[in-house]
Specification:
single chain; mainly alpha; elongated
Length: 166
């Protein structure tokens, strides 16, 4: 019996999302090392890393966006099931499918707007205050990450819609 094409595609997309999450993890590690270096420098030699705040802002935005698609694939988001404790499994699946569909729509909307915003920020030549790093550089990864988040949410929507009663 052959594996359905959607399962094969899901496996590859999930693998790509895992790689992105790994890159995001290393960005967080680099950000932490940057902060520690700057704090130690300010306290020991009275000189911190120039532009550390702006670098942390840019890196945080990118790193978080890189982790979101994998988190959605693994259903790692916070669920508040207080209101659905009484619900049947079928109703919970319907609500989960609806939530995944809404997340997909919002993720694609954010991907589109960050894509448009990236070019607007580039056209305005906006840079960070201390290092003069072009702000649009941080936006390059965001449309890709939010598009992958939308795709992951669509895969989870499909999964909820095709589940059988357990």
């Amino acid at each position: 019996m052959s594996v359905p094409i959607i399962s094969q595609v899901r496996k590859y997309v999930e693998g790509f999302c895992a790689v992105l999450a790994g890159v995001g993890f290393f960005l967080f590690i680099g950000e932490a090392l940057l902060s520690v270096t700057s704090i130690i420098g300010r306290n020991v030699i009275d000189y911190g890393v120039p532009g550390d705040y702006e670098l942390v802002q840019l890196i945080t935005a990118v790193a978080i966006a890189m982790c979101l698609p994998y988190c959605e694939f693994k259903r790692g988001h916070v669920f508040v099931d207080f209101f659905t404790l009484w619900a049947s499994d079928k109703l919970k699946r319907i609500l989960d499918a609806f939530a995944a569909l809404i997340l997909a729509v919002v993720a694609f909307l954010i991907a589109w707007r960050t894509y448009v915003g990236m070019f607007e920020i580039r056209d305005y030549a906006e840079t960070t205050m201390v290092l003069n790093v072009p702000v649009w550089w941080a936006y390059i990864a965001l449309p890709i990450c939010f598009s992958l988040l939308g795709i992951a949410a669509l895969f989870n929507f499909h999964l909820e819609c095709t589940k059988r009663n357990s």
